[in-house]
Please model this.
Amino acid sequence: MNQKRCNFKLLAVSGKLYAVGGQSLSSVECYNPEQDSWTFVAPLPAPLVEFSACECKEKIYVMGGYTPRDRNLNIWEYCPVSDKWANFETCGLHIRKQQMLSVEETIYIVGGCSHDLDCNKRSSQNEDMLTVQSYNVVTKQWLYLKENTSKSGLNLTCTLHNDGIYILSRDIILSTRLEHRVLLKYNIFSDRWESLRNFPTPGQNMLICSLYFPDLI
Model:
C-alpha cells in the first residue's frame, strides 16, 4: 500500500481489493492483482474510527463509528465504477465496533455497541452482548434479529459460510467475571443460534474465514 494504516477494512469487490480508511484516515486504496499495484481512489467523506464496512451487490457500504467531531449516523455507499461516495442513508441508530457481512441485498451487522437515538425506544443495549441485526440496501429496512446476553459482542470475529454466520466470541459469566472463547453459528434462514465445539486453541487477535476451493477432480 501507498499509505500506512491500521484498523482498516480490506474488502474484495469485482476482482480487486479495497483498503478502506483506518485509524482516523479517510484515504482508500485499490489493489489490482493483474498489475500488482495499489492506487488511491476516492476517499471517505470523513475520517472514521471504530467503523465497519462490507461489500454488497458490487458496492462498498460503510457505517458506524465516529468522525473527528461526532457520531457517524450516515451509511456511505461507494461505487467502484464511478469512483464516488454517496450518503446512502442517515439513520437513528448509532453503532460502533461491529462486524459486517452481506448476502445478496442484505447486510448483517454482528456484535458491536449500538445506541438507539429514538427517545421512545430503549436508549441503549448492553455493551457486552452479542446481537445480530440486518439492513436491506434495497428497502432500507432495519431488522433486530437476535441477541445472546451471555456472549460478548465485542472483539469478536465472524465469517459467512453456506447458511450461517460463524462467530468466534467469548462466554461471559457475570457472577465470576470469567470468560472463555466459544464458536457459535447463527442460521440466517431459521434465525437460530447453534453452539459448536469450543475453539481448541486459545489466543489473541484471532480471525476466522471461509474458503471455497474449486473442484479440480
In short: The two ends are 37 Å apart (CA to CA). Residues 1-96 form one domain. The longest strand covers residues 164-173. Residues 65 and 96 are 5 Å apart (CA to CA).
